[in-house]
Design a protein that fits this description.
The complex is a heterodimer of chains A (about 475) and B (about 600). Chain A has about 475 residues and is α/β, with parallel strands linked by helices. Chain A has three domains: about 70 residues, Elongation Factor Tu (Ef-tu), domain 3 (Beta Barrel); about 280 residues, Rossmann fold, CATH 3.40.50.12240; about 100 residues, no CATH class. In chain A, the strands form four sheets. In chain A, strands 9, 11, 14, 16, 17, 18, 19, 20, 21 and 22 form a ten-stranded mixed β-sheet that branches. Chain A is elongated. With about 600 residues, chain B is α+β, with helices and mostly antiparallel strands. Chain B folds into four domains: about 70 residues, Elongation Factor Tu (Ef-tu), domain 3 (Beta Barrel); about 80 residues, Beta Barrel (OB fold (Dihydrolipoamide Acetyltransferase, E2P)), CATH 2.40.50.100; about 240 residues, P-loop containing nucleotide triphosphate hydrolases (Rossmann fold), CATH 3.40.50; about 140 residues, Bovine Mitochondrial F1-atpase, Atp Synthase Beta Chain, Chain D, domain 3 (Bovine Mitochondrial F1-ATPase, ATP Synthase Beta Chain, Chain D, domain3, Orthogonal Bundle). In chain B, the strands form six sheets. In chain B, strands 8, 18, 21, 22, 23, 24, 25, 26, 27 and 28 form a ten-stranded mixed β-sheet that branches. A six-stranded antiparallel β-barrel of chain B has the order 1-2-5-4-3-6. Chain B has a four-stranded antiparallel β-sheet with strand order 12-11-9-14, with no helix packed on it. In chain B, β25 and β26 form a beta hairpin. The longest helix of chain B has about 30 residues. Classes of the chains: A alpha/beta (about 475), B alpha+beta (about 600). At the A-B interface, β5, β11, α6, α7 and α10 of A face β1, α1, α4, α6 and α9 of B. β5 of chain A pairs antiparallel with β1 of chain B.
């Protein structure tokens, strides 16, 4: 066991970084406490060690630290979160310290927040359908347990309402199991965080929630640790206490900006838009902690939220996120302007794990064919809409007009729903059939003819009459 | 090997560690780092200081800890037991690691790539006294129901074989002794080793001459890849790179498939792991797992091991190629491999080229793809093996001017361009027919037993492609002046192109029947669609309204032809008769 050593050998401070010299026994990744001249304590983590020189990132920022009178204590351990079942219902700071008025946590154990990668062989494939009650998700981009499905949003779009609705409504059909919500706020406003917390209060879900809150005016560098604290809590709840955990990370763009700040301070060669070249790997170590594990009852389902600068999907943060997560729900500003809520942009949204989570015995046998057809019809309707804006509706063929009407109805009736409207998956599917009933069978190429005969409302009626 | 070199760590920065006192170590030697004994590889030497890329997380490691040289380069173990295995980037078996350490990966684990306890039945094909040289086959092990693993003399060993005997052996037991002319004796085992960064030797390289049939219509008919060829699939996220890779791994007509999940999602590997033992190879009826080797170094696993994973994969593939097999490697995704190179390069403080990638990026990519090919294998009996590489590329923002895409396009012969636009319409596989290309199209005609059928198929694909190109132009006109301005034949061309797209190119990977289409069925399907087109032109010339042609009931049959099982293929031929009958009716109604 290494003893805790104190040094007063700070040699330089620049941005969020601090250099300490003449240190021995410093280990990469371990944490330090920095005691300022006035007795206050800051926290830091070792980013690099070279001989006796140690580079430390200071989570709370370096303002007020001086070179001569600061004491650095090397704690010889990585960042840890103290966990016990008591963490449920509590609010923590972005660095994992209790922030509400409750008592300190008496830890059952302390867990390294960096965890270890899940052995891919030990994973269980996510295939349990989660009913969110939101048609544009359940019907077209179903979420399954253990999936990571981000919401790509933009400034001024209602992602807070959607995440609150998800936390409120998400259930697995026909099962009553221990469920928990872990919420990590990274650089979001007090209002946004409070909206979510209040919503949990109203539904009583607060008892089953753990919150890690780093607000917009909290230290930016702290945000690098916040999602890892949240996920450590989630792993504890899921894989040790057998709970099904929904993790909401809001907002990952702020996280990446904090990472960029550190990278710039270290004078690293920047990648796209100044973000570090290792952004993909770093994000993966966050996102890949979602999942299910063989032999464990619990699961971690993750919904990261990120705001796309200028709604640009090719910006490094959404781009790299999309390469790691299992799909994405994209919110659209034009739809939001049309007062379609939630304004889910159906065509570029995607759930990669849907195919194994739906169908007979899970949702309904017609689910897959149905969403394929809805997509195809809506895509065609969208094309017609575009054509109409260029050349006027008069130039459209009869067929195109029909598809355009479909697209409008689809947005208004299927995509749009109240934030408190909790539709069952059957309702969502039937609504889809209802909308498709305006087409002839021949046009419904993506659906098995047997399913059309079974589920199409017009056939079902004739069956009843006969 | 008693006095292994021990150095001392002076610097730790993420996955790169610098150690001093390392005089005498060689570049790319494997070393053990720190008190945890984690695995690393030497990537830079300056005086007595060595920079080491470390294959595991370095948290908790600091200056002063020891570094031990193992004096061997990063190597893989080759022998019976590879098939059906799942390895991490440096050939540690993930299933055994889980048994030993639980669901999370610990550090410093040592686990040999091949099982040391399992006994294999060795059947010699040569007798004592036979003179052998490297690559010669001395016997077989039936590794799985599909793979008769050939035991070859390792490189660097030749002489006369003694004491060769049939029996049950573990991989490191001696099955024969090879006595060289100078009297030195080498023990031959079922297992050999090979450094991953060197390609295995071959007698002669040959040009690829036959197609790798994938059962994917857009690939086989329009942009085929050959046995021994190289292909790349770039595309933005959500366009189905991984689904295409999985489909190829499932249905490709190769003897051995090596699937490298390089820096990708954990759940995707789990998907492969749960599906492959259940899916049946359409040719043999055996589970696909019995011909597959999986390498899984997911995105959250250490980057340096990710860098090594593609080399581990290709080396295993080359080993099976040397036995004379048809081998296919799927690498998903090479961009993650390039990013791993970039990360290591940044930590080494090398001068970056484009987008922060190291200057040697293009050279490394080219050298990797160059390990593919059709070859005459070394050793007797004479045999030919092929190794195809299919690499996914994930360019940032789907931008094809990305360095990795460009470097890859310089070397590969087949380009499958995935388009976001197609994916949003749920047109899968979202391979764009206008921008993709293949240099192996000439071999398409040889895929048919019937020469004439082959020639016809080739002509049909040219016609179909012509229609699709015409469609792109016509749609431009429609956009400007409206559909009304088109002539009836142009309108028919538009409808036929739509039919080619929706009824032929579109293929549902998750449909039991549609997931795989044999070459003869592809021929029948395309022939039927084009038959409708030809008959349509005749009808238009006779004065039939295009609207009436488009309303024909047979079009639904054409659309559903893809769901007709392989065994009922005559039903597709019947559709062509129905087309003729229904067209005839139109003719008569015009005539009256």
């Amino acid at each position: 066991m290494l003893s805790i050593k104190e040094y007063q050998t700070v040699s330089s401070i620049a941005g969020p970084l601090m250099m300490v010299e003449m240190v021995d026994e410093a280990k990469y990744g371990h944490i330090v406490d920095i005691e300022l001249a006035d007795g206050s304590i800051r926290h830091g983590q070792i980013l690099q060690v070279e001989n006796d020189k140690v580079l430390v990132q200071v989570f709370e920022g370096t303002r007020g630290i001086d070179v001569e009178n600061s004491t650095v204590r090397f704690l010889a351990k990585p960042l840890e979160l103290a966990v016990s079942p008591e963490i449920l219902g509590r609010v923590f700071s972005g660095l994992g310290e209790p922030k509400d008025d409750g008592p300190p946590i008496i830890p059952d154990k302390r867990l390294d927040i960096n965890s270890k990668p899940i052995n891919p062989y030990a994973r269980n494939y996510p295939n349990e359908f989660i009913q969110t009650g939101i048609s544009s998700i359940d019907g077209l981009n179903p979420l399954v347990r253990g999936q990571k499905l981000p919401i790509f949003s933009g400034a001024g779009l209602p992602h807070d309402q959607i995440t609150a609705q998800l936390a409120r409504q998400a259930t697995v059909l026909g099962k009553a199991e221990a469920f928990a919500v872990v919420f990590a706020a990274m650089g979001i406003t007090f209002e946004a965080a409070q909206f979510f917390i209040n919503d949990l209060h109203e539904t009583g879900a607060i008892e089953r929630a753990v919150m890690f809150v780093n607000l917009a005016n909290d230290p930016a560098i702290e945000r690098i640790a916040t999602p890892r604290f949240a996920l450590t809590a989630a792993e504890y709840l899921a894989f040790e206490l057998d709970m099904h955990v929904l993790v909401i990370l809001n907002d990952m763009t702020n996280y990446c900006e904090a990472l960029r700040e550190i990278s710039a301070a270290r004078k690293e060669v920047p990648g796209r838009r100044g973000y570090p070249g290792y952004l993909y790997t770093d994000l993966a170590t966050v996102y890949e902690r979602a999942g299910r594990i063989k032999g464990k009852k619990g699961s971690i389902t993750m919904v990261p939220v990120l705001t796309m600068p200028e709604d640009d999907k090719t910006h490094p943060v959404p781009d790299l996120t999309g390469y790691i997560t299992e799909g994405q729900i994209i919110l659209s500003r034009p739809l939001h302007r049309k007062a379609i809520s939630p304004p889910v942009d159906v065509l570029p949204s995607l759930s990669r794990l849907k195919d194994k989570g739906i169908g007979e015995g899970k949702t309904r046998e017609d689910h897959a064919d149905l969403y394929n057809q809805l997509y195809a019809a809506y895509a065609r309707g969208k094309e017609a809409q575009e054509l109409a804006t260029i050349m006027g509706e008069a130039a459209l063929s009869e067929e195109d007009k029909k598809y355009m009407t479909f697209a409008d109805k689809f947005e208004a009736e299927y995509v749009s729903q109240d934030y408190y409207d909790n539709r069952s998956v059957e309702q969502t599917l039937d609504l889809g059939w209802e909308l498709l009933s305006m087409f002839d069978n021949v046009e419904l190429k993506r659906i098995d003819i047997k399913l059309i005969e079974k589920y199409m409302p017009k056939f079902r009626k004739s069956e009843r009459e006969a | 090997m008693a006095d292994k070199k021990v150095g001392r760590i002076v610097k730790v920065a993420g996955p790169v560690v610098v150690a001093e006192g390392m005089t005498g170590v060689r570049m790319y030697d494997v070393v053990r780092v720190g008190n945890l004994n984690i695995i690393g590889e030497i990537v830079e030497l300056r005086g007595d200081k060595a920079s080491i890329q470390v294959y595991e997380e370095t948290t908790g490691i600091g200056p002063g800890e020891p570094v031990t040289d193992t004096q061997v380069p990063l190597s893989v173990e080759l022998g019976p037991g590879l098939i059906e295995s799942i390895y991490d980037g440096i050939q540690r078996p993930l299933d055994l690691l889980m048994e030993a350490e639980g669901a999370f990966m610990s550090r410093g684990s040592l686990m040999p790539g091949l099982n040391r306890e399992k006994k294999w039945h060795f059947q010699p094909v040569i007798t004592d006294g036979t003179k052998v040289s490297p690559g010669d086959i001395i016997g077989h092990v039936q590794e799985t129901t599909l793979i008769a693993h050939k035991i070859m003399v390792p490189f660097g060993i030749s002489g006369t074989v003694h004491k060769i005997a049939e029996g049950d052996y573990t991989v490191d037991e001696t099955v024969a002794v090879c006595k060289a002319e100078d009297g030195t004796e080498n023990q031959l085992k079922l297992m050999q080793q090979w450094p991953v960064r060197n390609s295995r030797e071959v007698k002669k390289r040959l040009t690829p001459n036959s197609l790798l049939i994938t059962g994917q219509r857009v690939i086989d008919s329009f942009f085929p890849v050959s046995k021994g060829g190289t292909a790349c699939i770039p595309g933005p996220f959500g366009t189905g790179k991984t689904v295409v890779q999985h489909q190829l791994a499932k249905w490709v007509d190769a003897d051995v498939v090596v699937y490298v999940g390089c820096g990708e999602r954990g759940n995707e590997m789990t998907d492969v792991l749960t599906e492959f033992p259940e899916l049946k190879d359409p040719r043999s009826g055996e589970p696909l797992m019995k011909r597959s080797v999986l390498i899984a170094n997911t995105s959250n696993m250490p980057v340096a091991a990710r860098e090594a994973s593609v080399y581990t994969g290709i080396t295993i593939a080359e080993y099976f190629r040397d036995m004379g097999f048809t081998v296919a490697v799927m690498a998903d995704s090479t961009s993650r491999w390039a990013e791993a190179m970039r990360e290591i390069s940044t930590r080494l403080e090398e001068m970056p080229a484009e987008e922060g990638y190291p200057a040697y990026l293009a050279a490394r990519i080219a050298a990797f793809y160059e390990r593919a090919g059709r070859v005459q294998c070394i050793g007797t009996p004479e045999r030919e093996g092929t190794l195809s590489i299919i690499g996914a590329v994930s360019p940032p923002g789907g931008d094809l001017s990305d360095s990795v895409v460009q470097a890859t396009l310089h070397v590969v012969k087949v380009f499958w361009s995935l388009e976001g636009r197609l994916a949003y319409q749920r047109h899968f596989p979202a391979i764009s027919w206008l921008t993709s290309y293949s240099f192996y199209k000439d071999s398409l005609k040889d895929c048919f037993e019937d020469k004439e059928q082959g020639m016809e198929m080739e002509k049909m694909t040219v016609d179909a492609m012509g229609l699709l190109e015409q469609e792109a132009e016509l749609l431009e006109i429609v956009r400007l002046v409206g559909a009304e301005a088109l002539s009836p034949t142009d309108r028919l061309a538009l409808e036929t192109s739509r039919s080619i797209r929706e009824d032929f190119l579109h293929q549902n990977a998750f449909h039991d029947i549609d997931t795989h289409t044999s070459m003869p069925k592809q021929y029948e399907m395309l022939k039927t669609i084009l038959h409708f087109h030809k008959q349509g032109i005749v009808a238009i010339e006779a004065g039939v309204e295009t609207a009436d042609i488009f309303k024909l009931a047979v079009r639904e049959d054409i659309a559903r032809a893809k769901y007709i099982p392989q065994a009922d293929m005559s039903k597709i031929v019947d559709i062509r008769k129905t087309i003729e009958e229904q067209m005839k009716k139109l003719h008569t109604s015009v005539a009256t």
